[in-house]
Design brief:
Layout: E1 2-6, H1 13-30, E2 35-40, E3 54-58, H2 75-79, E4 85-88, H3 91-96, H4 101-113, E5 117-122, H5 126-129, H6 133-142, E6 154-158, H7 172-185, E7 190-192, H8 201-205, E8 212-215, H9 222-234
Parallel strand pairs: 1-2, 1-8, 2-3, 4-5, 5-6, 6-7
Length: about 240
């Protein structure tokens, strides 16, 4: 399974290094083999002596190698730090920062052409959820338009928008239903994100179609994040 932490707009280079080294030490000491990802801010990137099952990735990038794009980060800057994993399509970029699906698809194609691991995020807002599961799935499938779902290094994260950072996690039955419907058409690993925390991660990971989690706020404590990784290692399917 994959246990991923999205730092969002948090952590400095110094504090991120402490966090990452703590998680590395935990993985080595416990011989834990879960796939771990930490998506840090650009300013916290560095060359970390990563263990094989931990990768530091980025939350965003502009789909160019380099060029005249004031304020943007291209792949040349990511390659300096050996970045191999990227988040694309997170709801905060779609809904708060108004990133269009056309740009998201452009980023996807660019990262794919560079053989990056892509965690592609999809999710529905509360008003769509209230219309029922058929409306939810129709909304989610629209977010796959122009996206190569057969890409070898694709991982899909289902994150209902109304559950991100609100403390409200989707009911297990809702998570199960959406992931199972996604699984009918998609063969890639499926993660769940949306107010995942130590108290509920085990029950979420026991959902048959769930291959891991993408965690925000609750993962910003080293001990809590390591505990999530430990719990994941105890879940047998």
């Amino acid at each position: 399974m994959m246990i991923a932490s999205n730092f969002k707009t948090n952590y400095t280079r110094a504090t991120a290094e402490v966090f990452i080294k703590t998680v590395q030490a935990f993985l080595v000491q416990t011989h834990n083999e879960q796939e771990v990802r930490i998506f840090a801010p650009f300013t916290a990137l560095n060359r970390f002596d990563e263990v094989k099952n931990l990768k530091v990735g980025v939350q965003n990038f502009y789909p160019v190698q380099n060029g005249s794009f004031t304020g943007e980060i291209g792949f040349e800057q990511l390659e300096e730090f050996g970045i191999e994993s990227v988040l694309i399509g997170h709801s905060e970029r779609r809904h708060i920062l108004k990133e269009s699906h056309a740009l998201i698809a452009q980023k996807y194609d660019f990262a794919k052409a560079r053989d990056a691991e892509i965690i592609y995020c999809v999710g529905e807002p509360a008003e769509v959820r209230m219309q029922g599961i058929d409306a939810v799935m129709s909304y989610l499938w629209e977010q796959f338009e122009g996206i190569d779902v057969h890409y070898e290094k694709l991982i899909i994260a289902y994150e209902p928008v109304w559950a991100i950072g609100t403390g409200l996690s989707a009911h297990l039955d809702d998570i199960k239903e959406v992931l199972e419907r996604l699984r009918e058409k998609l063969s890639k690993p499926l993660l769940y994100g949306g107010s995942v925390k130590v108290e509920n991660i085990e029950s979420i990971l026991h959902v048959k179609a769930c291959d891991g989690v993408l965690v925000g706020t609750a993962s910003w404590n080293e001990e809590a994040f390591c505990e999530m990784i430990r719990i994941a290692d105890s879940v047998k399917k």
